[in-house]
């Protein structure tokens, strides 16, 4: 049974003919508004709307107008629309209050006394409505929609020497890839930036304990398979394969990535273990899901009202109740210390700050493959390379040439929509929140933070 709430719209800014148009008329039909008796220039109409979020606009003497005194927001096409959230009316009878003179009147809220609580309820309603819309989208769309019409997927052979795998990932511009076992004809797992960090830390520890540094020829004797078998023998079982199927909905994709703390999962043509080995069709990522979401709502982002909220008002990232402490390093911090902190703190990136805690750069796990340049990973066995030197080597000595691509920033005044749009850009996995004037680091927002807040 449908439920509608009588909702009154008022235009107070003059005109000869005024019509109302909005999402509830599919932006096609218009509703004529009548002049209000005794109030020149004011027009009103009552429309019965279903509970939920609605956008609307006025057509005054043939021109589109919006009410600047009511809530409004821009859409991706540059239009500005008013919006409102219609709540279901509580059927409980309104209590009757007695005035000081003894007469009775219908009880009603005191606007001054309840404005704070009303704003809080509206904010919660916007959040609930937005999450419901996003949840409906995630359940209605599948991983198949993440697969581009054309593209490439990097898959590494399990018997490839680790050093060559390191270089291959760097040349392909990625920090992780699925593995292919040609012996068992299966996909046993994924090699990631964390695996390379662990390998380099072990080499460093070995040399510090008195062993000789490995030459490139000696490194080539160690294959990915050999390292996985060695780890298993030491009780460090390699992570099991986390994958998704094309016909699984995006809600399952997001939940699986979050539950396994994965940055990506291969999209396979079928379940492993079948008669024929599955093909790797694509790599599913949280960034890909966000991009899919933004494409779907690109013409109606205003229908997700939570995205209009400023970042500083939301329990997101560094400001979420269960957030871990914000870890930072300086340009002079040794790279081995930074790599250890990345693994031990369980974070994907570390802001690089100066003595005033102002943002200078960022060092992320995915940058580990940059050590391929000039064989820097070989020197790391015995030399204390700093974070600044590593980043400088990665950019060919010019920090500014890559800094803009590596460091994405926002402020607490930016909206959640800005955060989502930037994180939907391929390769962007986190945003550093800085003070707009001093660039002092105030927090960090990652893809997993946004997924936890909006999707789960």
From TrEMBL:
Give every CBS domain span. 146-207, 319-380, 399-456
Return any one Pfam family short name: CBS
InterPro entries given in the database record = AMPK1_CBM, AMPK_gamma/SDS23_families, CBS_dom, CBS_dom_sf, Ig-like_fold, Ig_E-set
Family matches, as CDD domains: E_set_AMPKbeta_like_N
Q: Which domain of life is it from?
A: Eukaryota
Q: Where is this region: Disordered?
A: 94-122
Q: Which SUPFAM superfamilies match?
A: CBS-domain pair, E set domains
User: Where is there biased composition of kind Low complexity?
Assistant: 95-111
Q: Which UniProt keywords apply?
A: CBS domain, Repeat
Family named by the database record: Belongs to the 5'-AMP-activated protein kinase gamma subunit family.
Fetch the PANTHER family from UniProt.
AMP-ACTIVATED PROTEIN KINASE, GAMMA REGULATORY SUBUNIT, LD22662P
Q: What is this protein called?
A: CBS domain-containing protein
What is the source species? Answer: Volvox carteri f. nagariensis
């Amino acid at each position: 049974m449908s439920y509608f709430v009588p909702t009154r719209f008022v235009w107070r800014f003059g005109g000869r003919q005024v019509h109302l148009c909005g999402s509830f008329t599919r932006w096609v039909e218009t509703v004529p508004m009548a002049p209000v008796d005794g109030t020149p220039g004011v027009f009103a109409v009552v429309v019965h709307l279903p509970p939920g979020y609605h956008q609307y606009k006025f057509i005054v003497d043939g021109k589109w107008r919006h009410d600047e005194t009511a809530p409004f927001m821009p859409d991706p096409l540059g239009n500005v629309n008013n919006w409102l959230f219609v709540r279901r009316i509580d059927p409980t009878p309104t209590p009757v209050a007695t005035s000081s003179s003894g007469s009775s009147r219908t009880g009603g809220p005191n606007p001054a006394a309840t404005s704070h609580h009303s704003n809080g309820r509206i904010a919660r309603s916007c959040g609930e409505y937005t999450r419901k819309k996003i949840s409906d989208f995630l359940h209605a769309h599948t991983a198949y929609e993440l697969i581009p019409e054309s593209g490439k997927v990097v898959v590494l052979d399990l018997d490839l020497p680790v050093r060559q795998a390191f270089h291959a990932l760097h040349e392909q511009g990625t920090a992780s890839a699925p593995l292919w076992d040609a012996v068992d004809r299966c996909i046993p797992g994924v090699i990631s930036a964390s695996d390379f960090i662990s390998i380099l830390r072990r080499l460093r520890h070995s040399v510090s304990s008195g062993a000789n540094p490995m030459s490139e020829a000696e490194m080539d004797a160690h294959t990915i398979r050999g390292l996985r078998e060695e780890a298993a023998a030491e009780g460090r079982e390699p992570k099991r394969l986390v994958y998704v199927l094309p016909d699984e909905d995006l809600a399952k994709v997001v939940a699986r990535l979050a539950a396994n703390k994965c940055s990506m999962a291969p999209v396979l043509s079928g379940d492993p273990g079948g008669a024929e080995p599955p093909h790797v069709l694509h790599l599913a990522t949280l960034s890909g899901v966000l991009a899919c979401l933004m494409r779907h709502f690109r013409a109606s982002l205003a229908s997700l009202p939570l995205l209009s909220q400023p970042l500083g008002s939301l329990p997101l990232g560094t400001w979420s109740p269960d957030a871990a402490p914000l870890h930072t390093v300086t340009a002079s911090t040794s790279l081995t210390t930074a790599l250890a902190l990345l693994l031990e703190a369980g974070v994907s990136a570390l802001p690089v700050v100066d003595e005033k805690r102002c943002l200078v750069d960022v060092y992320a796990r995915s940058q580990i493959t940059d050590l391929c340049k000039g064989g820097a990973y070989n020197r790391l066995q015995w030399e204390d390379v700093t974070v600044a030197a590593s980043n400088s080597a990665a950019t060919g000595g010019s920090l500014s040439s890559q800094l803009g691509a590596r460091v994405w920033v926002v402020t607490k005044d930016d909206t959640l929509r800005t955060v989502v749009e930037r994180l939907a850009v391929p390769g962007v996995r986190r945003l550093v929140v800085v003070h707009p004037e001093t660039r002092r680091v105030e927090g960090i927002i990652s893809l997993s933070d946004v997924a936890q807040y909006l999707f789960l």
